[in-house]
Design brief:
alpha/beta; Aspartate Aminotransferase, domain 1; 2 domains; seven-stranded mixed β-sheet; 12 strands; binds pyridoxal-5'-phosphate
Length: 392
């Protein structure tokens, strides 16, 4: 019997991958499955981005790159952030990452240990809690409430900070709720954090380009007073439909940058070279494909929320970002995970139960509208039929 020294029973999982596997299995058996479980755009990477990777490969870009990424891409990322948010990031703080997730892995590893508290959004991306527990730190959920449009309350978050708190994790626009935290709340948080100069911040802004109704994304990089303790997570996966390319970026305070670089050198060496050239094309090339994708997501968003609000005992607030709807199903009497599992097995609709995103997710299910409008509306109709014919 082998005994790894870390407690792997503390390491969690991402149930969305298990739901995807089960949905595919049912589809392979000939079942008609509509998948609203998956958190990736149902679009292809725009052709000019694909072309840039092919050109790089044909030009012989086959070797290692610097662990922190190729200089041209780091420059482009810094200009992009400074241009969009009026920030003053130096390219020296930018690190190119193999996807968005690795930034959270590194940041949580840097601060998590026994005796330490880490605050994270709940409902939120499941990897936050999983990684916090793996490090031995205590996960302290910051509830995101429906009545606030699933934005965090700065007062509530600040009230949870204690001398044990080392890191707080923020995510807006949010997975799984689609909630966007308004600027006024972030301003208030930034003011309150002045009292806690030793608390680091990980701001997961992977959906930064995915807001609706003309809403401007409010980045934490726009707050000069926080820059010596802010870690920014963003990337290409969602905005450019590049989840499989494994390309992301982070911005580190100067004091942490070399730790992150060494973690890269000790684990993956560098990010895929051709993917980095694709990343340059994505940020510097035409943005029309992303705009068209967001226009399509907007149409679906309105349609899915409208359809959900027409179902018995279901209500759904209008999400302001990302591509998820998070309807409240508590009045149906079903436990959220039971409902999600029965919808998949009996109605052929894949969704994710809210508790997969934390205890405050009970009473909700997550629908990703990364599917055709026709399929989304058919799925909601199936959910309605299921609810009319079944009791918990
Ligand atoms: N952060 C959030 C909130 C996400 O929803 C996701 C992916 O679903 C990620 C990070 C990870 O992104 P990536 O696929 O680039 O690792």
């Amino acid at each position: 019997m082998l005994h790894p020294i870390h407690n792997f029973s503390n390491l969690g999982d991402e149930n969305a991958f298990a739901v995807l596997a089960r949905a595919n299995q049912l589809a392979d058996q000939g079942r008609d499955i509509i998948n609203l479980g998956i958190g990736q755009p149902d679009f292809k990477t725009p052709p000019h981005i694909v072309k840039a990777a092919i050109t790089a490969l044909e030009a012989g870009e086959h070797g290692y790159t610097p662990a922190i990424g190729i200089p041209a891409l780091r420059d482009v990322v810094a200009s992009e952030i400074n241009g969009r948010y009026g920030a003053s990031i130096s390219p020296d703080q930018v690190m190119i990452m193999p996807g968005g997730k690795v930034t959270m892995y590194m940041a949580i590893s840097m601060f998590g240990t026994e005796g330490v508290d880490i605050l994270y959004p709940d409902p939120g991306f499941p990897i936050y809690r999983s990684m916090i527990e793996f490090t031995g730190a205590r996960p302290v959920p910051v509830p995101l409430r429906e009545e606030n449009g699933f934005a965090f309350s700065a007062d509530e978050l600040l009230s949870l900070i204690t001398p044990k708190t080392r890191l707080i994790i923020l995510n807006s626009p949010s997975n799984p709720t689609g909630g966007v935290t308004p600027r006024s709340e972030i301003d208030k948080l930034a003011r309150g954090l002045a009292d806690w100069p030793d608390v680091a911040i990980l701001s997961d802004e992977i959906y930064s380009r995915m807001t609706f109704d003309g809403l401007e994304h409010q980045s934490l990089t726009a707050y000069p007073d926080l820059q010596d303790r802010l870690i920014l997570l963003d990337g290409w996966s969602k905005t450019y439909a590049m989840t499989g390319w494994r390309l992301g970026y982070s911005v580190w305070p100067k004091s942490l940058f070399d730790h992150a670089r060494k973690l890269a050198v000790n684990s993956y060496s560098c990010v895929n070279s051709a993917a980095q050239f694709a990343g340059i094309a994505a940020l510097t090339g035409p943005q029309d494909a992303t705009e068209a994708m967001m226009a399509e997501f907007d149409t679906r968003r309105r349609a899915v929320v409208d359809a959900l609000n027409g179902l018995p005992n279901v209500s759904c607030v209008m999400p302001k970002g990302a591509f998820y709807a998070f309807p409240n199903i508590s009045a149906t009497g079903f436990k959220a995970k039971d409902l999600a599992s029965r919808l998949l097995e009996e109605a052929g609709v894949a969704t994710i139960g809210g508790p997969d995103f934390g205890v405050h997710g009970e009473g909700y299910i997550r629908l990703s509208y990364a599917n055709s409008l026709e399929n989304i509306l058919a799925a909601v109709e199936r959910i309605g039929d299921f609810l009319c014919q079944n009791r918990p």
